[in-house]
Every structure is written in C-alpha cells, then in structure tokens.
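Protein details
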Amino acid sequence: MKILCVAEKPSIAKSISEILSSGNGLQNRPGRDQFCRNFCFRYRMPPGQSFGRHRANGWVDMVVTSVRGHLMSNDFGDEYRKWKSCSPTALFEAPIMSFVSEDCKKVAQNLKDEARSSDVLMIWTDCDREGEHIGAEVVRECQRVKRDIEVTRARFSAIIANQIHHAAQNPVALDWAAADAVEARIELDLRIGSAFTRMQTLTLQGHFQELDKKIISYGPCQFPTLGFVVDQYIKHSEFVPEPFWYIHVMHRKAPIDVTFHWARKHLFVQAEVKRIFDRCKSDPEATVIKVTSKQTRKYKPRPLTTVELQKSGGRLLHMAPKRILDVAEKLYQRGFLSYPRTETDQYDAQFDFKTLVGKQRSDSDWGRFASQLLDDQGAFDKPRNGQKNDKAHPPIHPTAHANGLTGDDKKVYEYVTRRFLASCSKDAIGEETKIDLKIAGELFTATGIVVQVRNFLDVFPYETWGGPGLPQFEEGERFVPTELTMKEGETTRPKLLTEADLVSLMDRNGIGTDATIAEHIAKIIEREYVMAQMEGRIKYLVPSTLGMGLVMGYNDINFAGNKSLCKPLLRRETEEAMTKVCEGETTKAQMVQQSLQEYRAVYTQANGSIERVILQMARYLRGEEPPAPPEWAAAAASSTANEPRQDDLLSLDDDLEVIDDEDLWSVLDGVETGGESSAPGPGDDARRIRSGGGNHGAMGTSSASSNSANAQIEVIEIDDDDDDVPVPSHAPAAAPRQQPLRTQTFHPGQSTSFADRVQERESADAHTPMCRCGQAAVQRKVIKESANKGRMFWRCPKQQGDETECGFFEWCDEAATSGARVPPYTRPSGSLDESNARGLTDSTMDRYRSIMNASSNLASNEVQCECGQEAKRNQVFKDGPNKGRFFYTCPKLSGRTRCKFFAWADEGTDAGQQQQQQQQQQQRAAQGPTRDLAGQSCFNCGEEGHWASACPQPKSDGATGSSRAATFGGNGVGGSSRSARGGPSGTVSGTCFTCGGEGHWASNCSAHAASAGPSVAPSRKRGAGGRARNSHAVDVDMYNNENSEDEGLHYDDRGGAGGRSKRVGTCFNCGQEGHWSSDCSEARQEGAARAFTSRGGAKRGRTTRGGPRKRGRGSSR
C-alpha cells in the first residue's frame, strides 16, 4: 500500500520525513516544483491499521511532499474584473472563479502525478481553519486524477517524534466544516473588499488629485482596526488636562523614606484642599491608628497563546506582532517550538510536562532552574488553566532545547521557554504591610511588600514585584512628618495605542483570528492609513491624514444599527457566523447570503452619503473645515428615517450621460435664480437627466462647485415621487434630502460659469465677504497645532495651488469688527447680452450691475500689489530690529502666481504715486501680458506708452523700424540707452554714425547702403571696457520675429563707442581706416585677426567693433 502525505510547507515535509523514516532508506527526489521535493521511504504501521477499504499489513510505502500554502486563487470573470466594466454593486452577485494560481501549477501537477499511483492521501497541513481549507484544496486536486483515493488527516501540534508518530498511526477525518468556513470568509472578503474599494477609490480620486495613483483599499477587518487607532488618537489629541491638588506626607524613619498617600487621593477644588491643608499644618502631629500585615502572592503567568505572545512580545521584546509570529513560525518549522497559532491557554491532563522541562537542563541560563523543578520536592506545579480551548493545539511551548540562536530567534525562543518554565513553577510569596495614620482628622496610608519566596520570579525576569518594605511602626505611635506639603498635579493624557494594545482590542472585539491579527495591523501600516511613531523604545500608532479622513467620514454617516464600516460590530458578527459554520450550526451558503445582505445595505447607505466622506477627506488632506449645515437641514435630519430608500439614492452604479451646454441651459431655464428655487411637484412635467439606467428624477437646483477652478456646475439629482421626504416650512423649497445625493459634475461654457457666480452672490449671506474672484468666500477653521488653532477665517473657494486662485484671506473675528467689504473684481470681457445672461431674472441682472459698479468704485487709497490686487497686511514676529512692524505683500497664496511686491506700512506712499501706480496697472491689464512701457517713448511720434510699431501716427522717414533701433546709435560707453530718441515733433534727433549727418539713423543711411550693401542682422557684442554695447539685442530679435512679414527690416548695431559720428575704425584685414574688415574689398589676410587689438581693451580677445561674433574672427573662444 502506498500513502501520499502532503504537508503545508516544504520544510515541514522534510522534518516529517526525517522523523518517520528515522534516517533509514530515505530517498530525496525532485518534484515538478523546484521547492517541493518528494521524500520516499518505508514505514511500519501498527498491526490491524486500516484506511477505508485499504488495510496496512505492517510495512507501507510513503511519499511525503508539500504545497506552498494555498493552491487556489479566486477572482471575478473578465466581464467583472476591470474596474469600470461594471458597477461595484454587481460584485455582490457576480460569479467567482476558482483556479490554480500561476505559481502553483507545477505544485498541483506534482500532486496529481503522485496521486495516480497512491492508495491513501494523508493531509499533514497545519491544524487550524486555514490548514483544513488547504487540505481540502489538495484533496480536490488529487481527486481530479483518482476519484476513489482514500482521504485521512494527520493531527499534530509540534514537530517532535512522539507527536508525529502518533499522528501517522492515528489519522482522523478532514474537517470539511472548517474548510467551508474559510471558503465563506474568502468569498465575503473578495466581494465586500472589491465593491467598497472600487466605490471609494473611484469617488475620492475624482475629487482629490493627490489620490489619483493610490488605491483606497477597504478590508472588513482592516477598517475596524483603523477605527481603533483613530478613536484613541482623538481621545489623546482632544484631551484637556484638568488640574487637581492633594496633600503630600513623607516621613523618614531609619534609612527609609516612607510616603503616605491621602485617602481622598486628590480634589479638583483648590480652595477646599487649601482649607484642609491649613488645618493639618496647624496641627501636624501624626498618629498611627492601624498596622496590618498579611501574606500575599503574585500569580505566575498563564499558558501562552498566540495573542498573548504578540502582546507580550510587543511590550517586552519591542517587536512587531507580525515579526514575532514569523520568527515563532520559523522556530516551529525547525522543531524548537510547538505550533505558534493557537487560542488555547490550558493543557490537557495527559500533557507530558517533565519530559519537556528535562530538555532544558543543559541550558546555561535557566538549566539550573529546570533541574530544581524536577529534583526538588514540591517545586513543580502544574500550570493554571485559562478559559480558552480551541481543541486543536496546546499552548505555545518549547519542544526541544536550542543552542546557537541569535537575534530575534533567540529573543522569542528565550521568552517562550522562560514563560513555560515559570508556568510550571509556583506563585511568588510575599508579605504586605499597611500603615494607616491620621493628621488633623485626615487619613493617610502607606503600603509595602516584602518578597519572601521568589519561585517563578527567579526564571522570569520580565516581571518585578515587591520592594525594600516598610520600617517598623507601632499602633498609637506619634510623630511629626518630615514633609507635609500641598502639591498640584493634573490628569494624565491617554496614551496612543501600541501594537500590543491594538492586538488586545482586536482580540477582545473579535476582529480577526489569532493567526490573522498581526497581518491586519501590518496591512493598515502598509496602506499608509496608520504610521508608526517612536518615543524612545516604544512604538505608538498614529493615523495618517488619509486614515483620519476615511474614518471620520464614515463615522459621520448614521448607519442603521450602528453598523459602521469602522466599528467592530459588522466583522464580529461575521466571525461569529464563521464559528457557527465550523460547529455545524449553519451552512456556508446561509452564512454568505446573510452577511452579503447586511454589507449590501451598508454599501448602499455609504455610497449614498459619500459626500460626508469627501468633506472629511478635504478637511484632513487639505485642511479645509467643512461648513456647518443650516438650521433647516438639522430640522429635516431629525424628521427623516435612518435607513435611506433604494430609489432615493443615486450611486456610483448609475451611468449618467454628460449633457451638453444646450441641454443644461434648457434645464436652467426653469430654475429661479433669485435665491430660492421651486422643486417640481409630483404632477409637474419636469425635465429629467438622461441616464443609462432610466430617469432618476427632476433637476431641482444647481450650485457652483467651490473647489473647481473652472467654476463647474454640480447638478443634484432628486426624484419627484409622492413619497418625498417632507421639508420644513422654513426651509428653502428645493432643500436637499437628509441623505446626501451623489452629484454628476458637468463642464459648461463660460456663460454658465458666469451665471453660477451670480447665483452664488444671490445665495451668499449678507455678511459673507466676496473674494477677489468675485465669488463668495468660504469659511474655514484652523485645525493644525498653532497659536491660531480653532480660529475661523475666510478664503477663496478655489483649491489651494490653483493658478486662478486670488489668494483672498481674512480672519473672521477681524472681519466682524471691520465690516465686510467687496474686494477687487475683474469685469468679464464682453457685454452683458442675451447670450451670457440667459436664464437670469431681471432682479438678478440688476444685482449683477450693482455688484460690478461697486467693484469699480474701490477706494483709491488702498495699497495694491503689482498684480493689481489689494495687498495683504502682515506683521513681523521674529526677533530683530523690525519686530512688530507691519508690511504689505501680494495676497496670493500660490508661490507660482505671487508677485514680489513689498512695502512697509509705516513708510506710507504718496497719494499721487498710488494713483499713478493704479493707472499703470490698469494700462497693463488692458494691454495684456506685454512689456512694461512706462517712461519709454515712441521714436516715431515721441509720445510715451507705445512702440513705433504700434504708433497710430504716419511713419516718418527715419522711423521705419522698431523703436529699439533708436537706442543703438547713442548707446556707447557712458551713454544713455534712451538719449537719442525722437522728440515730440516726430523728427529724429540722433546722429548717423555712417555719414555723420543728422536726421536719420545709420540703418537708413543711403551712403552706408551704397557702400556696405545689405545690412546684417544685429548681434550681441560688448563695447569698450567690456560693457554691453547692444543691451536691446533680444528686443530687436523679438521685434524682427513679430514683424516677419516686413522682409528686409533688420537693424545694424555696429555703432561706435560714445556715439561717434563717423566710421573712424581701422580695418584689421588691410589696415586702412574708414571701414570695417567685414566691408573690406581686399583679399582676406591670414592672421589678420591677431594683427590688431581692440582699442577699448575688450576681454577674451573679442573685438569691440563691428562684425558678428564668431569663432576665428576676433574671438578666442
């Protein structure tokens, strides 16, 4: 008979083979997978052992192989796998496919190869729910090639010889109920996790650019775990210490200082404590009224479970729970520890303690204590039992002595071993002494413990107990205390959660199992919902802004039955249902159907109220405080039911079509924009938005999205059924429902944005200031830790970082004292005609005009920055000579758009200068993004404010080119760049440096044109002394490019230093005066460039006179 044994891991398969074969005749041959090898040997079964219809007659052939965890994977089909291929709710019912994962195909093939020639399949996976499910996968795969193969299960708790042999000779049946429970959990996690992950990821990515490349994943266990961290963080951050006062008494007797604690502990009323203290101070003599002594004990630790190992390891060993389990798993595979995933904290009556204790005799650290337990009469004491027993594995304990361990392996093994030895010892015994005394009628108490017998404390240094004890006091003894003082203290802020604390909370609330708790904690850290914060050697867990936004958003939703996504109730019910499946009280199908029904209802409510999550995400990701709801909304909320109707909610599942501008305006035609809007009644023939799923309701109202740079319009969809939620009489007619509805965002044209802005002005409160964009400012609250925390302020409604954001900012308390004002508003281009005022009433148009008129009549004495906006007033707070001074800067928040304006407030500005500055800014605004022309004149007409190319006057003979050309003739060394411009008469006052005549430039000189031919393009050279000769070469190039249609309009910039009137330069080719080498008619002479040097002493071998600057011609570059 041949028996195929399948372990869960390759290392366990090897250990089992070595134990069962005893090293005799063990063959090791490769399998199809490089890690999963096949171990072959013969094994002797006890007489009469049978496996179904097969009977073992002594020796049998055994093949031990393994898998690598789960064989199968589960996923949706292609029509559901892509995120946008279906609505998230479809995943609650979509078919699920189970298939062998790609990396396990060779493992599965190896199982089928071996199963074909085997009679019995013996499962050796770990003895927990996951192990049973992996075993079920192995059975199904082997039965594909041999349906009648007998299936048995080897049950063991440690990889030690006696347990392995006992498991092989006494197999049991596979626990199919436990396997079903795991399959149910896998299906639920896949459906629920995928639906919620897609819903919240797609929704939040549409509102937050910073989340575009991040998957906001949801896990039924991870979110309640995250909720624990957030709840504790809120308690920690919002805690306000409260002062208290108490009376401190200390008396020094012999060498010991004894502190007596006040029986009242402390009081929160200082005056009352002061009154009592004054009474004690006036009569300070203390009288001992009672001295009691009694024997006490400190209990030894209970047997070790997985949860306790994670808690103690995190607190004492400073290791993460997952890391502790990984190390313990490795030690288990090496045969040093028992199975580390167990909920049992009690040993069976037949457990062999003394054999395991005897294996520790040889250890240099605790071997002596182990020997005392076995040799000393009465030293050994059976461990005290706890309350849990999973009937699968015993508590965690050492199975063999380990030498040569280092690092975390040594730390974990030592803790487990010392705890096991301590649990086999006796409790520590001590004597507790209590002394009571009175001072002026007030009772004070001192307590001390003296350890008499240490017992388990000798081997378990992780706990301490006792102290030096108290000196001798007698009843009736009187003395004056050494110290009698009144002290002040304050209540202590709750600490943040450590990983050990979180493990305790999860275990107590039924979140996860002993085997998965550590994985859930690691997941929320990996997904950046939680961050680890070190304080010394202690690691605390702090929620990230992403984690805070998610939890606070879902907590704002009033889920039915308090079954919030971030609370433990939902998952606890699922875990309890899984236990019922394991115990046979319900079936897998029933459990899955019931859980999906609950989660579907929660999904519907969460998706319908996702705006609350968006508001909280904006609050924590961007620091934007959500606005307070109006009074009528609170009244409406109190009159609505907790659970929304399915037909009232529009979710992510509805494929809405984006309507065009005409359709949008046809809808807006029926909307009153005077501040209130009328919702269509049940009988009204209202227009409906086109939807892939049918008509969902009438267009009730439109509002601007304040976070959109394009002034998008959000159209809220409501229905017009008779069963609408009643609206209070004092509420607007088109009040939104209690359950926030999903909105579809449209991008209409410019006219829509204009209409939207006007409607915002209509609906804004009279005291709400307008930002510089012309929109109603939004109110926010400072939530960051600073001197202004909790302070309210007004700001531009556009997103931070938006280039169109005006940067408006104002403290609410300052606005209340100074009064709201209308900031500068840029009038939109174009007239207010029928095309861009469509859908607006006459009253709205009148109000628009009044707003525009008010914005144009700004006070002229306001300080404005270079952007043309009202400058922001700031104060210097840093230490220095300017501390306390006020100054003005650009009000924009974005560094990309902020100008460099700066002015001290106390220095002031001249009224005339301020008016001139405003005029210049208006000119710049009218001309668009062009160069500043202040102080520069046209050389054609002589007027300032424009170039000759834009001059409205007829061109003069000497002004055919760009105005920049006027500077070239007179901009030599020490010259002014504007000294040669034409005067008011329009005539050219400069001197031609070609012929020496006046009234024209060299570029228009007929003598130069005749002798030199076509002029060359300008170049950038340096004049005498290295100064720039052509400071406007870039402008010339720009002008030539802008006027490229005027072919031949190029400017020669080869002027002499100081504006010479003649061409007196020397040609370095022929040596003659009167022309440059570029105009020389003689043949080119080699070395001519080096024969003459610059008269002006130009640097780096460059000539200071004419000719383009090129290599080999007057340049050493």
